[in-house]
Specification:
The complex is a heterotrimer of chains A (about 325), B (about 525) and C (about 300). With about 325 residues, chain A is mainly α. Chain A has two domains: about 55 residues; about 200 residues, MetI-like (MetI-like fold, Orthogonal Bundle), CATH 1.10.3720.10. Chain A is about 75% helix and about 0% strand. Chain A contains twelve helices and two strands, in the order H-H-H-H-H-H-H-E-E-H-H-H-H-H. Chain A is globular, with a radius of gyration of 24 Å. In chain A, about 50% of the residues are buried. Chain B has about 525 residues and is of the alpha+beta class. Chain B folds into two domains: about 280 residues, 3-Layer(aba) Sandwich (D-Maltodextrin-Binding Protein, domain 2); about 230 residues, Dipeptide-binding Protein, Domain 3 (Dipeptide-binding Protein, domain 3, Roll), CATH 3.10.105.10. Chain B contains 16 helices and 19 strands. In chain B, strands 1, 8, 9, 10, 11, 12, 13, 14, 15, 16 and 17 form an eleven-stranded mixed sheet that branches. A four-stranded antiparallel sheet of chain B has the order 4-5-7-6, with helices on one face. A two-stranded antiparallel ribbon of chain B has the order 2-3. In chain B, a hairpin with a 2-residue loop joins strand 6 and strand 7. With about 300 residues, chain C is mostly helical. Chain C has one domain: MetI-like (MetI-like fold). In chain C, helix 3 crosses helix 12 and helix 10 packs parallel to helix 11. Chain C starts with 7 loop residues before the first helix and ends in a 5-residue tail after the last helix. The chains are: A mainly alpha (about 325), B alpha+beta (about 525), C mainly alpha (about 300). The interface between A and B is large, with 67 and 77 residues.
Chain lengths: ~325, ~525, ~300
């Protein structure tokens, strides 16, 4: 177990180095930050001077070495646009994004799992087919359109929910939360629905597919043969055995939801990391972009490790990486 | 326990926030957040415009864009390179500190420091000298007829406050630490910063000790950036906002048609134009040994092929103002007689092309931003179609502004869109020196195509130092006329400026696209 | 599998596979819809009333006309025109070509690569597994949007100009495939690890079957279920990602719009009453995605031996 964790950690470090390298390479293609930092009337001389000041004229290996040196200490420098330490900006925005992602994930699980179970147990029922089709329509529209439609319906027409922002937030130490105020909770509804909609469909279909498979397996037949009730069979045995792949996917999806939050945050002006990143892209704010990429990668690597560990704990049959036969 | 304390605090804050007497709150949204509270950290016009509510300069533009006294009550030229400012008496900063000459000296030095991102906005300033507690002398490098225009953008901070918080110099990105002025403020302006959550909400409250007589009746301004056009409009329509900038053209009808909201509009200073590559070869063409854009007839043909009336009517929904000149009417140097834009004539354009030796046209690269100007990408698409009809096959490359301007300024674009508002100078010299003057270290920063006309260069250099307003204006008009005859840059239009408000908000659109809320009232 | 079976075709016609297809009316309709959209897209140059790519034929005078049946509509433009005077119907037909190409090609590459990696990784484990999975981690750590930005930057720098327009499509496919293969790989790996320990695999090993034979004949069919679920969803996602990418200027050029680009552009007109520029492309996309997914569902159930 310990050896497994150590090996896994070493691999994670390698992954992070690769991510840093790719993130760094990307900067060559995002545009010249100097243009958006200086007034239009700045002379060519001024532009050159600023480029030198930012260290953009140094040889690329030197720039990369400095970048890694800083990144290891969690230092990504000062944002070109906001003039604040990037680490502060990220820490400020992290709670907003994480609350959004977890709310969306919760929404997806609460909707997706029951719908999946239902459609698996009533395979050919009318409601099942309807659910399947509705869930598909939900993901056939680009999320930015869904978001605008949600705003149109629930903010403009019905006037029930706010169309932008996080509402009132409360500071708990460095963590700012919108979960403790009414306006904060109301503000969370539309964005998490928009972000979670795709996952609802994915989880529902996954649960359904796995359920159907498990229901055919011998051990379920035995359970039935033992005279257990349908209820016990379905929920005690079948559902529990479908949860492995669901855990995997849900875990993996958390990472991609953080990435997809970029779009949700843009539509709802949700002051999280995705919005920070999109602003950074349009201003070629390289320190912010690099920090975001490295952080998303880090979160992902951690989630991945946890998923692997869960595999290990939940299902010892798998003995991850231990079998060299 | 911690949660409870936090909840308690939140309740208290909420209670305080809503207990204001007859509070007139203006909730507004712009497409971009202000970059920082530090007025010497960024020159974007939305940041500078918003910060003018908190900080002020020695002079300011009024709502007619005329320079008027602000922190300086009066001024005179002691000699052509020395301006003496008599500072206003009895002004205090938001923290109660008195405003004196020391503050002006420290602020100008801060803005002009080598590490300052705004120093390009103070090109002609040599030094600043204190004469007495309420008098300063600004020493110029040479005669500078538009120094006051520059100064409208240079705000004054409190020296004692900067000293205390180690903020006497602006943020130095290389130093890797935050400047106190980035998140805090202490100005003299009509409003004071109450709180700021970047990208979420910035709250200003009225300054009860403002030196000027308020024309506004606001007690509080809540500013939120909302990047998505549709969300911004939705928030206005749903009553969550009172004022938004900008309002997309295609939604004007909807906003005016909805109960309780309307659009206020006017022409902007910004002129949209198309620049050319004047190099020996094109970057993106089937022609490898010649650059047809060097031929005046080809440039005339390209200009003639563009039907601006149609673009004005369809793409801009009748809201833009077609331009024959590179500057807008309020800008000194503008000449109505030259502003005429002749109607489109594809047949004549084709004939000119044939005369120049390109009867079948040619291929050429065409670069546009897709998130910088009003309907930029749509305009470029329409122009591409119009050029296709005279045989010029433009390969349109529309991309986000940071990539677009990088490509343009690197000089790797054949034809490119650029907009110029002449701010903060509000003077044609801006266009002449940056866009038309032959490229050198200090001139022609936005002339990547390498246009060069000795007569324009000569006039521009004279304009830079001429103090006689009439002669200066005449020379600027002459130079702009030369550029027009040469089709050095195609001028398209002045883009429209559209803001939207809820009923009861009274505000005038100012052509520099900076809302001046010290003129705003709420019924 | 017996050697003296009748012709393969006869077996196919007689199989459960074809039987279940005939039985399901929904599947039949979905297949018809998918096939007709694909056909319409393929035949676009012949059946579209206008060529939306030929900018010389566009006129702003025709811009923003409503559908032919609505007031102010023009019979030449059945579904109306967009803000450039482009015929919406033709734009949808041509746009579907691009979207379908992006969707199918990227899913194909991602699926082949992902399943192969997942099988190898899951079956052999050890170092091979570790290397593949860490590469997967790196890929997953980057949003597709960013990979596309990077790839397109490199491509634009490296390729001559004439190839850019064609390259846009390849860039999209590559960017989507390289970030989505991981999903297949991880899922297949997990299932393979489970299957590897099953008795039938052990039995196959004991009788001396080669690893390749075991993987392809025994494990592959048993892990394809979740793969097809992901594939059908990813087909939709690829088309939608392509739309999202056009925000950053790395999607299809505005003069050469895909279905997603049409929706993205039309989306800006949602509040302004010009509904036809966003409704019709969206409807096309919804119908297409729905049909593909319904087919996928059926395919999954029909291919899964355990569900018979």
């Amino acid at each position: 177990m310990l050896a497994f964790i150590v090996r896994r950690l070493l691999q994670a470090v390698l992954v992070m180095l690769a991510v840093a390298l790719i993130a760094f390479a990307m900067f060559r293609f995002v545009g010249d930050p100097v243009n958006s930092m200086l007034p239009e009337i700045a002379t060519t001389e001024d532009r050159q001077a600023l480029r030198a000041q930012l260290g953009l004229d140094e040889p690329i290996p030197t720039q990369f070495a400095k970048f890694i040196g800083g990144a290891v200490q969690g230092e990504f420098g000062i944002s070109y646009r906001n003039k604040r330490p990037v680490s502060d900006l990220i820490v400020e925005r992290l709670p907003a994004t994480l609350e959004l992602v977890f709310a969306a994930a919760l929404f997806a699980l609460l909707m997706g799992v029951p719908m999946g179970v239902y459609t698996a147990l009533n395979r050919h029922g009318f409601v099942s087919n309807l659910l399947q089709i509705i869930s598909l329509i939900g993901i056939s529209v680009p999320t930015f359109v869904t978001g605008i439609l949600l705003i149109l319906i629930f903010s403009v027409w019905l006037n029930w929910l706010p169309s932008f922002g996080r509402g009132e937030v409360v500071q708990l130490g460095w963590w700012s939360t919108g979960l403790l105020t009414i306006s904060g909770l109301k503000s969370l509804v539309l964005p998490s629905v928009m972000l979670g909609l795709f996952q609802v469909t994915l989880i529902m279909r996954l649960v359904r597919a796995e359920m159907l498979e498990v229901l055919r397996t011998d051990f379920i037949r035995f359970a039935r043969a033992r005279g257990l009730t349908d209820r016990a069979v379905h929920f005690g045995h079948a559902l529990r055995n479908t949860l492995m792949p669901v855990i995997t996917i849900a875990g993996l999806q958390l990472g991609s939801m953080i990435a997809f939050a970029i779009i949700t945050e843009t539509v709802f002006q949700w002051p999280g990391m995705g919005l920070l990143f999109i602003q950074a892209v349009s201003f070629a704010d390289i320190p912010v972009m690099s920090a975001y990429l490295v952080l998303v990668a880090l979160i992902f690597v951690v989630i991945n490790m946890i998923v692997d560990l869960l595999y290990f704990v939940v299902d010892p049959r798998l003995s991850v990486g231990g079998d060299r036969a | 326990m911690r949660i409870l304390t936090a909840l308690g605090t939140a309740l208290v804050v909420t209670a305080l926030g809503t207990s204001g007497l007859a509070a007139k709150t203006l909730r507004m949204a712009d497409s971009t957040d202000i970059a920082a509270m530090d007025p010497h950290s960024m020159t974007e016009s939305n940041t500078i415009g918003f910060l003018n509510h908190v900080y002020e300069g020695l002079v300011r533009y009024n709502d007619e864009l005329q320079v008027e006294p602000a922190l300086a009550a009066s001024w005179e030229f002691v000699d052509p390179t020395r301006v003496r400012f008599h500072l206003r008496e009895g002004v205090t900063f938001h923290n109660g500190n008195p405003f004196t000459a020391d503050d002006v000296v420290a602020s100008i030095n801060r803005a002009a420091d080598d590490s300052s991102p705004v120093k390009s906005n103070l090109p002609g300033v040599a030094s600043i000298e204190k004469v007495d507690d309420l008098t300063v002398d600004l020493v110029l490098k040479g005669t500078d007829p538009i120094v006051l225009n520059y100064l409208t953008n240079i705000y004054i901070l409190d020296k004692e406050w900067m000293d205390k918080h180690d903020a006497l110099l602006p943020s130095d990105i290389r130093a890797g630490k935050e400047n106190h002025a980035v998140a805090n403020s202490n100005g003299t302006g009509p409003f004071m910063l109450e709180s700021r959550q970047p990208e979420a909400k910035t709250v200003l409250v009225a300054n009860p000790n403002w030196w000027d007589t308020p024309k506004h009746n606001l007690s509080r301004i809540e500013f939120s950036p909302i990047a998505s056009d549709a969300t911004r409009i939705a928030a206005l329509l749903s009553g969550e906002l009172d004022f938004i900038t900008p309002a997309p053209l295609q939604d004007i009808e909807r906003i005016n048609g909805s109960e309780g909201t309307s659009v206020i509009e006017g022409p902007e200073l910004r002129t949209i134009m198309l620049g050319f590559n004047y190099g020996d070869t094109l970057h993106d063409s089937n022609l490898t040994d010649a650059n047809p854009l060097q031929d005046l007839r080809v440039r005339q043909a390209l200009n003639m092929a563009i039907d601006m009336d149609l673009i004005q009517k369809k793409v801009m929904r009748g809201k833009s103002r077609n331009a024959g000149l590179l500057v807008a009417p309020p800008v000194p140097g503008y000449d109505a007689a030259l502003d005429e834009r002749s109607p489109a004539d594809p047949a004549a354009a084709k004939a000119l092309l044939a005369e120049a030796g390109y009867p079948d046209g040619f291929e050429v690269g065409f670069d546009c931003p897709n998130d910088r100007y009003v309907n930029d990408e749509e305009i470029c698409q329409a122009v591409t179609a119009m050029w296709a009809r005279i045989g010029v096959k433009a390969a349109l490359n529309a991309q986000t502004k940071s990539k677009h301007f990088e490509k343009v300024l690197a000089g790797t674009s054949d034809i490119y869109m650029v907009g110029w508002a002449t701010l903060p100078m509000l003077d044609s010299y801006s266009v002449l020196s940056a866009l038309l003057h032959t490229k050198s270290d200090r001139m022609g920063a936005w002339n990547p195509g390498g246009y060069s006309n000795p007569k324009i260069d000569e006039l521009t250099d004279k304009v830079a130092v001429e103090l006689d307003q009439a002669m200066r204006t005449a020379m600027m008009s002459e130079a702009l006329g030369l550029a027009k005859d040469d089709v050095a840059i195609i001028s398209l239009h002045q883009q429209p400026l559209a803001w939207a408000v809820r009923d009861g908000v009274n505000l005038k659109v100012t052509a520099d696209n900076k809302p001046r809320l010290w003129y705003a009232t709420v019924d | 599998m017996s050697a003296d079976a009748p012709s393969r075709f006869a077996v196919l016609l007689d199989s459960d596979f074809v039987y279940s297809f005939r039985k399901s009316r929904v599947t039949l309709i979905a297949t018809l819809v998918t096939v007709s959209i694909i056909m319409a897209a393929l035949l676009a140059p012949w059946i579209a009333p206008h060529d939306p790519f030929d900018v010389a034929t566009l006129s702003l005078l025709d811009s923003e006309l409503p559908p032919a049946w609505a007031e102010g509509g023009d019979p030449h433009f059945l579904l109306g025109t967009d803000n450039q005077g482009r015929d919406v119907l033709s734009a949808i037909l041509y746009g579907s070509r691009i979207s379908l190409a992006v969707g199918f090609v990227s899913v194909f590459f991602a699926l082949v690569a992902g399943v192969a990696v997942g099988l190898i990784s899951g079956y052999f484990g050890g170092l091979v597994d570790a290397i593949f999975m860490r590469i997967a981690d790196v890929m997953l750590s980057f949003p597709t949007i960013l990979v596309a930005l990077l790839v397109s930057g490199i491509v634009r720098g490296a390729l001559p100009r004439e190839m850019h327009e064609n390259a846009a499509l390849a860039v999209l496919v590559f960017a989507i495939a390289i970030t989505t293969w991981v999903q297949y790989a991880r899922t297949v790996r997990g299932s393979t690890m489970v299957e590897r320990g099953q008795e039938y695999v052990l039995a196959a090993r004991l009788v001396g079957r080669s690893s390749a034979s075991i993987i392809f004949r025994h494990i592959l069919p048993n892990v394809m279920g979740p793969v097809l679920v992901i594939a059908t969803i990813n087909l939709a996602m690829a088309i939608l990602i392509e739309a999202t990418l056009s925000f950053l200027g790395v999607g299809m050029p505005p003069t050469n719009p895909s279905l997603g680009t049409l929706i993205r552009v039309g989306n800006e007109y949602l509040f302004s009453g010009i509904w036809w520029v966003v409704i019709f492309p969206s409807l096309t996309l919804v119908v297409l995605v729905l049909a593909v997914n319904l087919m996928g569902d059926w395919l999954r159930d029909a291919l899964n031996p355990k569900l018979r």
